[in-house]
Design goal:
The complex is a heterodimer of chains A (71) and B (643).
Chain A (H helix, E strand, L loop, with lengths): L1 E7 L3 H12 L4 E7 L4 E6 L4 H15 L4 E3 L1
Antiparallel strand pairs in A: 1-3, 1-4, 2-3
Helix pairs in contact in A: 1-2
Chain B lengths: L2 H26 L3 H5 L1 H28 L6 H14 L3 H32 L7 E4 L5 E4 L9 E4 L9 E5 L2 E4 L1 H4 L5 E3 L4 E2 L4 E2 L4 E5 L7 H12 L5 H32 L2 H15 L2 H20 L2 E3 L2 H8 L1 E7 H5 E12 L5 H12 L5 H13 L10 E7 L3 E6 L2 E6 L1 H6 L13 E9 L2 E14 L3 H10 L4 E5 L4 H11 L3 E3 L4 H18 L7 E6 L5 H6 L2 E5 L5 H6 L2 E3 L6 H36 L4 H20 L9
Parallel strand pairs in B: 11-18, 11-20, 18-19, 20-21, 21-22
Antiparallel strand pairs in B: 1-2, 1-3, 3-9, 4-7, 4-9, 5-6, 5-8, 10-22, 12-17, 13-14, 14-15, 15-16, 16-17
Helix pairs in contact in B: 1-3, 1-5, 3-4, 3-5, 4-5, 4-9, 5-10, 5-22, 8-9, 8-10, 9-21, 9-22, 10-21, 10-22, 11-21, 13-14, 16-21, 21-22
The chains are: A alpha+beta (71), B alpha+beta (643).
C-alpha cells in the first residue's frame, strides 16, 4: 500500500537522510521524502501499515528532530 | 511566512542584535573589565551564539550519534568551536549567526517557490455537490464522489472529477490546466475535466472517474513527482557534495596540523583551517540548483506545459532535432473542402449534392467533409440514399454509382483516366482531389472537382520558425499521408525533412534512425537530444522512444499523459519554443550558480589557507554566495506567461 502525507522537513540533505533510514526499515517497500513539495510517501506492507508508519516517523525524528508528518 | 519560520527569524535576529552590541562594546572598549578577560568575554559571546546557533550544534551532535556526521552543521560547529578555542570569539559568533541567516533565507526561498507553484497549480477542487436520487443536493469531499454520481456544478464552481455533461450549457475556464485563456463552451454530452471552473450556466455532470483517477490528481501527482526525477546537473551536485565534504574536512585537518608542526604556530593555522571549513560549505550549490529546476518546471506549468522531471528540462535545453507527427499535431486533423471548381453551367451545390449522394453515408473523412460542406451551404438538405443504386467501390480510384438512374463517377485522376473521361487536371499537391463526372445525353461529362484539405494549424509555421530561432537544428515531419500531400505541407511550414507514407511502426524506426544520426554526429552524450511531438493517441511508442516525448492537446487522455515526458495541455504549438526557452534559461541559471559558487569559494579557500582572507570573508563565501545563488534561481519563478 502506498500513501502520501504532508510533512515538514527542513532541508534537502535532511530529507535524503530520513529517506535513506526509512527505506531500510522492515516492511518498507519504498519511501520518499520530498523536500521541495514537503511530502512524505510511504509504500509498505498493507497489514502492518499503521505500525510501520509510526516506526518510520519515529526513525525520522531521531535523525532529524524537525521531521514531522501530518496524519 | 508560517509561525515556525517567524519564531526562527526572531531568534536569529535576537542573536544578530546581541552580537552587534557586544562587538561594538568590545571594539570601542567601553567595558575593559569584561572584554579584557578572555574567559568572561567568551562566556558573553556564547549568549548570541546559542540563541541563534543552538539547532546547528544540536544537529551536528545528532549527526555524529547517528553516524551520518558529514554535513554542513558539523562543518559550522567545528569551525566556530575552533574560532572560540583560538580566542576569536566574535568571529565564531559571526559565523554562526550569519550561517543561520543564510539557512533561514534558504527555507524562506524554498517555501516561497513552493507557494508560487502551488498557486500556479491552484486546481484542486475543495468540494463536490452530489445530487441524490430524491433530488436533494449533498456537499461532499471530492474523494467521496463515486462513478455514476450526478454532480451539480454552479457558476464559479471548480469541477471536482472528470465527467460528462448530462444537462446544461456553459462556458468553462480551463486556464488553470491548459494556460488557455479563452473559455470552452460545453453542452449536453460533452466531456468536462476536473479542475476547470464553470463560468456561468448550471451544469449537471455525471462522474466518469473517481477523484484519484481524475485529471486534477494526475496532474498534481505529475508536478509533485517532477522534482524527484533529477537532472544530470542535480545528480552531479549531490555526488559532488558527498565526496567534497569529507575531502574539505580532511584538508582542513591537514591545514591545521601539518603547518603547525613545521612552523610551531598552531593558533594561526587552526584559525586558518576554520576559515577554510566555513567557506567550503557546499550549501549554495546543494540548494540553488534544485531550486532553479523547480522554478523552471513551475514557469513551464504556468504556461500550460507539464514537465515530468528536471532531466527532461535539461534535455529540452539541448534539443537538436524535433520530429513531429503531421495529422492532428501540425494540422488540425479534420478534413475540410477547401475549394470547388465547377465546369460551365454546373452549380457548386449541384456538384456537392451529387458527390455527397455518391459517397453515401460513408464514415471516410473525405465523404464526411463533403457532407459537412453541403450542410453548411444548403442547411436543410437531407441526403436521400434511396436515390443511389449500383454503388461500386473501385479500390484506389473512387466510386461509380447511379443517382436517380444517372451514372456518376467520383474519384481521383486514375478513375477519370480509366473510364476515358476527359477532365481538366487540378494541380494542388497538398489537397486530396475528388473529380466528379456524370452521364449526360451523349455520354459522360466532366462536371468539376472538389478539393479537400486538412487545415494546417494557424500557428504551426510560426512555431516552427521559433523553434529554429530557439536553437533547434532540424525539424522533421513524419506522416502516414501521401508523399505529395506531406511534402506540400512540409514546404508550407518550413520543416527541413519530410518522411511520408509511413505506417505506425515505421515512425518508430525513423525516429531510431534519427537518434543514431544524432549519436554519430555528437561527441558528448546528452548534449543533443531528439524530441518527438505527437497527439499521444496512436504514437505512444514513438513518444516513449524519443529522448523527450511531447504530447499535445491530450488533456484528459491518460495514455498520452502516461507515455509522454512533456505534456502540452492545450493544442498550441507555440508553447514548444517557449518551453525550450525556459529550459535554456534554467540551465543557464544552474550553470551560473555553479560557476559563481565554485569561483568565489575557491578564491576564498586559497586566500583563507594563506591567511589573507579572514573569517568574515569566509562568511561571505558561504552565506553571501548561497543567498545570491538562491536569488538567481528565483528569477525563473518571476517568468511571466508568454502566450
Amino acid at each position: 500500500m502506498k500513501k502520501k502525507f504532508k510533512c515538514e522537513i527542513d532541508c534537502a540533505n535532511c530529507a535524503a537522510k530520513v529517506e535513506e533510514a526509512v527505506k531500510k526499515l522492515d516492511g518498507v517497500n519504498d519511501a520518499k521524502v520530498n523536500f521541495v513539495m514537503q511530502k512524505f510517501t510511504l509504500d509498505a506492507d498493507e497489514e502492518k501499515f499503521d505500525e510501520i508508519l509510526k516506526l518510520a516517523i519515529e526513525t525520522g525524528k531521531k535523525i532529524e528532530p524537525d521531521f514531522s508528518v501530518e496524519l | 511566512m508560517d509561525k515556525k519560520l517567524k519564531k526562527e527569524l526572531l531568534k536569529i535576529l535576537a542573536g544578530v542584535v546581541i552580537f552587534f552590541v557586544l562587538l561594538a562594546a568590545e571594539k570601542t572598549g567601553v567595558c575593559p573589565a569584561l572584554f579584557g578577560n578572555r574567559l568572561l568575554s567568551f562566556l558573553v559571546y556564547l549568549i548570541p551564539y546559542f540563541i541563534s546557533g543552538y539547532p546547528v550544534v544540536k544537529k551536528a551532535i545528532l549527526g555524529i550519534r547517528n553516524r551520518q556526521p558529514m554535513d554542513e552543521s558539523l562543518l559550522m560547529t567545528i569551525a566556530t568551536v575552533g574560532a572560540f578555542v583560538t580566542g576569536e570569539s566574535s568571529e565564531a559568533v559571526a559565523v554562526m549567526v550569519f550561517y543561520q541567516v543564510g539557512e533561514w533565507f534558504q527555507k524562506y526561498a524554498v517555501g516561497q517557490s513552493r507557494k508560487n507553484i502551488a498557486s500556479l497549480m491552484d486546481i484542486v477542487p475543495e468540494e463536490a455537490n452530489v445530487e441524490r436520487e430524491d433530488g436533494t443536493v449533498e456537499t461532499v469531499d471530492p474523494d467521496d464522489v463515486e462513478i455514476g454520481d450526478v454532480l451539480v456544478i454552479k457558476a464559479g464552481d471548480r469541477i471536482p472529477v472528470d465527467g460528462e455533461v448530462l444537462s446544461g450549457e456553459s462556458l468553462i475556464n480551463t486556464a488553470a490546466l491548459t494556460g488557455e485563456s479563452v473559455p470552452r463552451s460545453v453542452r449536453t454530452g460533452d466531456m468536462v475535466i476536473s479542475g476547470c471552473i464553470n463560468g456561468e450556466g448550471l451544469l449537471r455532470v455525471k462522474a466518469l472517474k473517481v477523484f484519484e483517477d481524475s485529471t486534477v490528481s494526475k496532474i498534481l501527482e505529475l508536478v509533485e513527482n517532477a522534482s524527484e526525477k533529477k537532472s544530470k546537473t542535480e545528480n552531479f551536485i549531490t555526488r559532488f557534495a558527498r565526496v567534497y565534504t569529507p575531502i574539505v574536512v580532511y584538508a582542513a585537518i591537514a591545514l591545521a596540523v601539518i603547518p603547525s608542526i613545521i612552523t610551531g604556530d598552531p593558533a594561526t593555522w587552526f584559525y586558518r583551517a576554520c576559515t577554510f571549513l566555513v567557506v567550503s560549505c557546499p550549501c549554495a550549490l546543494v540548494i540553488s540548483i534544485p531550486l532553479a529546476f523547480f522554478g523552471g518546471i513551475g514557469a513551464a506549468s504556468a504556461n500550460g506545459v507539464l514537465i515530468k522531471g528536471s532531466n527532461y528540462l535539461e534535455l529540452l535545453s539541448g534539443v537538436d532535432t524535433i520530429v513531429s507527427d503531421k495529422t492532428g499535431t501540425l494540422t488540425e486533423g479534420n478534413f475540410k473542402v477547401s475549394e470547388i471548381i465547377c465546369e460551365e453551367g454546373i452549380s457548386r451545390t449541384e456538384l456537392l449534392r451529387l458527390a455527397a449522394l455518391s459517397e453515401g453515408l460513408s464514415g471516410h473523412p473525405i465523404a464526411k467533409s463533403i457532407r459537412e460542406e453541403l450542410a453548411s451551404q444548403v442547411p436543410d438538405y437531407e441526403i436521400n440514399t434511396n436515390l443511389v443504386t449500383d454503388t461500386e467501390n473501385v479500390s484506389g480510384q473512387g466510386i461509380i454509382c447511379k443517382v436517380s438512374d444517372r451514372k456518376v463517377f467520383i474519384g481521383n485522376d486514375k478513375l477519370m483516366e480509366a473510364n476515358g473521361i476527359g477532365f481538366s487536371e487540378v494541380k494542388d499537391p497538398s489537397a486530396t482531389i475528388s473529380y466528379v463526372a456524370a452521364e449526360e445525353n451523349d455520354g459522360v461529362r466532366y462536371l468539376g472537382a472538389i478539393l479537400i484539405k486538412d487545415q494546417v494549424k494557424e500557428e504551426a509555421a510560426n512555431a516552427i520558425s521559433d523553434m529554429k530561432k530557439a536553437g533547434v537544428r532540424k525539424v522533421v515531419m513524419l506522416t502516414g499521408d501521401r508523399k505529395t500531400v506531406g511534402e506540400a505541407v512540409g514546404r508550407d511550414l518550413g520543416v527541413d525533412q519530410v518522411y511520408s507514407e509511413l505506417l505506425p511502426q515505421d515512425k518508430v524506426s525513423k525516429v531510431e534512425e534519427l537518434l543514431d544520426d544524432l549519436g554519430q554526429r555528437n561527441v558528448r552524450e546528452g548534449e543533443a537530444a531528439l524530441a518527438f511531438i505527437g497527439d499521444g493517441i496512436n504514437d505512444a511508442p514513438v513518444l516513449a522512444r524519443a529522448d523527450v516525448g511531447i504530447a499535445m492537446g491530450s488533456i484528459g487522455s491518460d495514455a498520452a499523459i502516461e507515455a509522454a515526458d512533456v505534456v502540452i495541455m492545450d493544442d498550441d504549438l507555440r508553447r514548444i519554443p517557449t518551453t525550450i526557452g525556459i529550459a535554456r534559461k534554467t540551465m543557464m541559471i544552474a550553470k551560473q550558480n555553479i560557476a559563481f559558487a565554485l569561483v568565489v569559494k575557491s578564491v576564498v579557500l586559497v586566500l583563507g589557507a594563506l591567511g589573507i582572507a579572514n573569517m568574515w570573508a569566509a562568511v561571505f563565501g558561504d552565506v553571501g554566495v548561497s543567498v545570491l545563488c538562491i536569488l538567481n534561481s528565483m528569477r525563473l519563478l518571476a517568468e511571466k506567461k508568454t502566450i
